[in-house]
Amino acid sequence: MNFHTRKWVKPEDLNPNGTLFGGSLLRWIDEEAAIYAIVQLGNQRVVTKYISEINFVSASRQGDIIELGITATEFGRTSITLTCEVRNKITRKSILTVEKMVFVNLGEDGLPAPHGRTEIKYVKDQFKDESAVE
Q1: Quick check: pTM over 0.85?
Q2: In this structure, are strands 94-105 and 54-56 parallel, antiparallel, or unpaired?
Q3: Which residues is 70 bridged to in the sheet?
Q4: How many angstroms separate the CA atoms of 13 and 43, rounded?
Q5: 38, 59, 74, 84: most buried, per Cβ within 10 A?
Q6: Domains and CATH numbers, the chain
Q7: CA distance 1 to 29
Q8: Structure confidence at residue 93 (pLDDT)
């Protein structure tokens, strides 16, 4: 799993208990997962269809730096399934896990559309050196 996005837990992100508000974290996860799906499917029209059980493993407090990790686990005809982990950047302690998140690829008409992808596309493969002679 690749951890790309990092967030600094600030006072406005806290609940009355002084820990990271779950709603803020879920908003960050949904946004990060949508961006991941957009990049993988090459289409900005994707929607969240399903999020499985969300397991809050440990708390995060003000000043913590957390990182969100997402990876694709399955490619359907019109969907992509992801898994997610959020952890403390410094201690690597898990904060939250989501086993399954499903995003659906949409066509211009707003209906599910085949995306033609079957495997994870990595950045290094997306921008091959076009000046290289084959």
Answers
A1: yes
A2: antiparallel
A3: 2, 84
A4: 30
A5: 84
A6: 2-117 (3.10.129.10)
A7: 14
A8: 97
Digitized pLDDT (tens) for each residue of the chain, 134 residues in all: 888 899 999 999 999 999 999 999 999 999 999 999 999 999 999 999 999 999 999 999 999 999 999 999 999 999 999 999 999 999 999 999 999 999 999 999 999 999 999 998 876 666 665 555 55
Task: Using the structure block, give the residue that is written with the tokens 């493993």.
Answer: 57
Strand partners, 48: 103
Q: Chain centroid to CA 31: how far? A: 7
Joined together, the tokens standing for residue 128 give: 């091959």
- Please answer whether residues 95 and 57 qualify as being in contact, where contact means their C-beta atoms are separated by less than 8 angstroms: yes
**3-state percent helix, strand, coil for the chain, nearest multiple of 5:** 20, 40, 40
Backbone φ and ψ for 126, nearest 5 degrees, come out as: -80, -30
CB 59 within 8 A of CB 15: no
* Tokens encoding 14: 């806290």
**Residue owning tokens 């659906």:** 104
First to last CA, the chain: 32
